[in-house]
Amino acid sequence: MRKDLLSASDLEPSDVEAIYSLADHLRAVPLSRALEGRAVALLFEKPSTRTRVSFEVGVSQLGGHPVYLDYTTTQLSRGESVEDTARTLERYVSAIVARVSRHDTLERMAAAARIPVINALSDLEHPCQALSDYYTVREKLGRLRGVVLAFIGDSTNVFNSLALLGAILGVEVRIASPRGYGPSRALMSRVRDLGGDVLVYEDPEEAVRGADVVYTDVFISMGQESEREARLRAFLPRYRVTEELMSRTGKRSIFMHCLPAHRGEEVEDAVMDSESSVVFDQAGNRLHVQKAILVRLAEEGHLRRRPIGLGRPAAPPRGPRR
Fold it and tell me: What is the per-residue pLDDT for 314?
């Protein structure tokens, strides 16, 4: 596994297999000393519930010390460069988990820091979410290769990571979006480079036909609040996941959502609260999978016990020999 996890495409199939095997073990045996003596910085520029709590609890359960840093209360908010912050943090902690507005921030941080940087969400990707989602699919359906996942709505950062990781794992990924809200050419090219493809539809009913998984996300992501009215006009009511749309799969499909959900917008209550919904199992699996990522990085020697730049204490001077 590489030092940094910035994109789902940073992973090899063997990495995912190892992470999922570790996650299975950590579900059964939650407490360990895998991160004993290590601190992990959680540097968050954007609000969070599931990502923050799952990482804080996870680091603690592994015997480490989570250090939560609100972006606005650090010197970054006063103009310190990302690079200087990263080089400082590596003197104190063994890894940086960062939730940022711009993906470029993560790339700059990873280039400057000699410790791992983990993407806890950027404008382009959310790899920890996608890893946890496919772990949940594996748990519920017993397989990943050949699974059909239909994503209904905007091509969000979550969708980007699902598409990339799906290509790695042999999942068929589809998306149904209004014209102008589908995946970018850059993403489609990256997916093809990984040996996969994304099937793009405008009609949600066509997209879900034969799907094992129906997935949606909010129509207005963080930072898009000014586009709210235009987005709702584009997406509603056609792209709302309803019981009727779920029935169009033609099989007993599962429903997924990365949360938080805006009930009544992208999904109706009857689907969110149905037996087919696994949204809260998704959320719970974030804990196990993210712990597994950290343990995997530790096992491969990327998470050092001693902060970089701090050597062993000097031996006390000896007095003159007599």
Answer: 47
Is there a catalytic annotation at residue 258? yes
* pLDDT, position 305: 75
State whether 87 and 224 are in the same domain: no
- 121 and 134 part of one domain: no
> Is 143 part of the annotated catalytic residue set?
no
Residue 319 scores a pLDDT above 70? no
User: What is the pTM assigned to this prediction?
Assistant: 0.94
Burial of 162 (0-12, 13-18, 19+ CB in 10 A): buried
Judge whether 91 counts as a catalytic residue: no
Does residue 228 register a pLDDT over 90? Answer: no
**The predicted structure's pLDDT at residue 321:** 47
Active-site entry in 154, 240, 257, 258? 258
Question: Which residue in this structure is represented by tokens 């596994």?
Answer: 1
Q: Look up 129 and say whether it is catalytic.
A: yes
Q: Is residue 309 part of a domain?
A: no
φ/ψ of residue 277, rounded to 5: -80, 130
Same domain for 242 and 293, yes or no, is no
For residue 126, indicate whether it is catalytic. yes
Q: Tell me whether residue 322 is one of the annotated catalytic residues.
A: no
38, 126, 257, 288: the active-site residue: 126
Burial letters for 27-58: b for 16+ Cβ neighbours within 10 Å, e otherwise? beeeeeebbeebbbbbbbbeebebbbebbbbb
- Name the residue range of residue 234's domain: 129-281
Shared domain check, 142 and 265:
yes
Same domain, 275 and 293: no
Please pick, among 123, 174, 217, 288, the residue that the annotation labels catalytic: 217
Residue pointed to by tokens 């997935």? 215
Choose the catalytic residue: 38, 50, 61, 129: 129
Q: Which candidate in 50, 138, 174, 286 is catalytic?
A: 286
Quick: pLDDT tens for 256-308: 999 999 999 999 999 999 999 999 999 999 999 999 999 999 999 999 776 66
> For the chain, what is the domain count?
2
Of 114-123, 125-134, 167-176, 220-229, the one with minimum mean pLDDT is 220-229
